[in-house]
Design brief:
Layout (H helix, E strand, L loop, with lengths): L4 H27 L5 H30 L15 H15 L6 H23 L2
Helix pairs in contact: 1-2, 2-4, 3-4
Length: 127
């Protein structure tokens, strides 16, 4: 089933948002200080690695299925409340996963969400 160019544009926007989310984690990672900062620093490192792999897979798979996409990375700032930021982005993935119609591309969204849940666990419970 071929996707429309409007759907391709939505996918491109979402892929840019996924990349920006990873960058936001790195920005926060560089600013971590205070009690529990080592645990947060390490949790963010692990998440950034896992999410980078998942992002690369979903972008390359999307290119294979749809051809070149006009991905633009939005401006990214350091998140204030990292747990809220990560939780909100988890929900955004839930809302956008319907862009991917194939089972294997949906499973790539699952990989992204699994890494986010692991990050939330570490941020909330491991100090």
């Amino acid at each position: 089933m071929a996707k429309t160019s409007s759907s391709n544009a939505e996918i491109a926007v979402f892929l840019g948002e996924l990349y920006a989310f990873n960058v936001s984690l790195k920005l926060f990672h560089w600013h971590v200080t205070g009690p529990g900062s080592y645990a947060k620093h390490m949790a963010l490192d692990q998440a950034i690695d896992s999410l980078s792999e998942a992002l690369d897979s979903i972008v390359e798979t999307s290119y294979a299925l749809l051809g070149d996409l006009p991905i633009v990375v939005p401006e990214t700032r350091v998140p204030g409340d990292i747990v809220q930021h990560v939780s909100d982005f988890y929900q955004e993935i839930n809302e956008k996963r319907n862009l991917f119609k194939e089972d294997f591309t949906e499973s790539l969204c699952d990989d992204f969400q699994e890494a986010i849940q692991q990050l939330l666990y570490r941020l909330k419970r491991l100090q």
